[in-house]
Amino acid sequence: MAEPFPREGLPLEEARRRVLAAITPLTGRERLPLGRCLGRVSAEPVRAPEAVPGFRASIMDGYAITDAEAPSPGRRWSLVGRSAPGAPYGGVLAEGEAIRILTGAPLPEGAQRVLPQELVSPESPGAGGGAESLRMTGEAGPNPWIRAPEEEAAAGDELLPAGVRLGAAALGRLASCGVASLAVSVQPRVGLLISGDELVAAGAARGPGQIWESNGTLLRALLERLGYPVSEQRVVADDPAALRQALLELAADCDVVVSTGGVSAGDSDWIRPLLAELGEVGFWKLFLKPGRPFAFGRLGPRPFFGLPGNPVAAAVTALQLLWPALQQLEGGEVVPLPRLKVRLASALKRGAGRPELARARLAVAGDGALLAQVEGSQASSRIGSLQGADLLLEIPAEAGSLAAGTELWAQLLRLPLL
Ligand SMILES: Nc1nc2c(c(=O)[nH]1)N[C@H]1C(S)=C(S)[C@@H](COP(=O)(O)OP(=O)(O)OC[C@H]3O[C@@H](n4cnc5c(N)ncnc54)[C@H](O)[C@@H]3O)O[C@H]1N2
Ligand code: MOO
Fold it and tell me: In a structure prediction context, what are the per-residue pLDDT tens digits for the chain, which is 418 residues long?
């Protein structure tokens, strides 16, 4: 039977294309208060209900006057009132009059300019009584220091399209425009299956040849950081009946099923035959280091990701293939990691073979050039190679050892702050 994939494995780009082509976004949505929307995806466009700020507001603490042009030093006004944030001056300002105004307070009708208080000096009425007055002592510039009523938004402006991941800035802006809640897409429920006869929980005593289970902790934390907490997890031995049972349960309860381990070609690697039995193998094997034994397919109707058992390979393929799929399942834009060009800080010994995503630290040289520092073994079993990594260096398949200074593309392991 012809294999539906090249023998050496699928190039990463092609694998990502096939994964995304097979993923249909979930249709559910829910309305949540803003405080619970961080990291979620907008399910519909949001428009400003009203203009914001909605009135002309002072940008400075000072005095509002009717003068359109900057007044000259020595000019005087009589002080007739005050406008504070939330306590506007009710009257109409006339020529020759000024009011005290605070930052953020509404300008009264007739006012055309605010004089920052540093430019004027108030004068008390003399012995004969009369109004308090104001005298121009400084040199006014052209800025009238007035914030336009529609500076942030006009009524009906689109504040946000559908399909956008909500960060602090978007949520803050929605609040500033009076929006209290919003419709967001439901999140995919992620089921995680961890398999391996050799695995014991961290903290438990190890028998001969046993290792402490780490992929559960690693993947759960990574997925949580990406905004997709794992909703169910099973740890199962390399036993086909137990694995079949766990896969069926996870597929029943979750929108996407992810496994780690048991996906290469050994005689206790059950994931692929079980996927073929319970659903369909879309493709198996990537032309990638780390991450060659990777399976994608369907478990019944659910997308399935068989990540390798080696921890680094599991984390890298989760970032490269599972994360885009989760973004698409949620109905959001699939946002790739930013790519940039960096130079190797030191020579890198390697053999040509598979395209590699090497873990590196980002350093900035004195002249501002971006440098990649690859430290220690890049074995896919060594989780330490992920620790502190800022970059995944994209090393082409045909590249052998690389000299210091070699320019390479790299993916920046950073999420947006705002
Ligand atoms: N003949 C071949 N052998 C292997 C190939 C191959 O192409 N031909 N590929 C190698 C590569 S590359 C990788 S990566 C591994 C992945 O194999 P599996 O996905 O089947 O994973 P396992 O064999 O179950 O485990 C590999 C390794 O990782 C450890 N492991 C597994 N699960 C966990 C866990 N939850 N926490 C911590 N460590 C875990 C496991 O003990 C093994 O050491 O296959 C190569 N072999
Ligand atoms: O793909 Mo494996 O992760 O190279 O060791």
Answer: 445 556 789 999 999 999 999 999 999 999 999 999 999 999 999 999 999 999 999 999 999 999 999 999 999 999 999 999 999 999 999 999 999 999 999 999 999 999 999 999 999 876 666 679 999 999 999 999 999 999 999 999 999 999 999 999 999 999 999 999 999 999 999 999 999 999 999 999 999 999 999 999 999 999 999 999 999 999 999 999 999 999 999 999 999 999 999 999 889 899 999 999 999 999 999 999 999 999 999 999 999 999 999 999 999 999 999 999 999 999 999 999 999 999 999 999 999 999 999 999 999 999 999 999 999 999 999 999 999 999 999 999 999 999 999 999 999 999 999 9
Q: Is 311 in the pocket of ligand 1 (CB under 6 A)?
A: yes
ipTM reported for the complex surpasses 0.95: yes
| Residue 207 burial (CB count, 10 A) | 8
Q: Other C-beta atoms within 10 Å of 317: how many?
A: 28
The candidate with the shortest Cα–Cα distance to 44, out of 147, 163, 144, 156, is 163
Of 330, 151, 148, nearest in space to 227 by CA:
330
Residue ID of nearest Cα to ligand 2 atom 4:
290
253 and 163: one domain?
no
Q: How far apart are CA 177 and CA 287, in angstroms?
A: 49
Give a yes or no: residue 334 inside a domain. Answer: no
Q: What number of residues does the chain have?
A: 418
Rounded-to-integer distance, Cα 394 and Cα 12, Å? 11
Our CA dihedral for 28, 30, 35, 39, rounded to 10 degrees, sits at 10
Query: Does the Cβ of 292 fall within 6 Å of ligand 2?
Result: yes
Q: Which domain holds residue 83?
A: 57-147
Cα distance between the two ends of the chain = 51
Task: Give the number of whichever ligand sits closest to the CA of residue 287.
Answer: 2
- CATH number of the structural domain spanning residue 366: 2.40.340.10
3-state secondary structure of 324: helix
Query: Does the CB atom of residue 306 touch ligand 1 within 6 A?
Result: no
Residue 104 in domain: yes
- CATH code: domain of residue 325: 3.40.980.10
CA torsion 369-376-347-343 (nearest 10°) is -20
Q: Say whether both 132 and 113 belong to one domain.
A: yes
Say how many Å lie between the CA of residue 321 and the centre of ligand 2: 15
Domain membership flag for residue 5: no
Tell me, what CATH number does 43's domain have?
3.90.105.10
**Single pTM value for the model:** 0.93
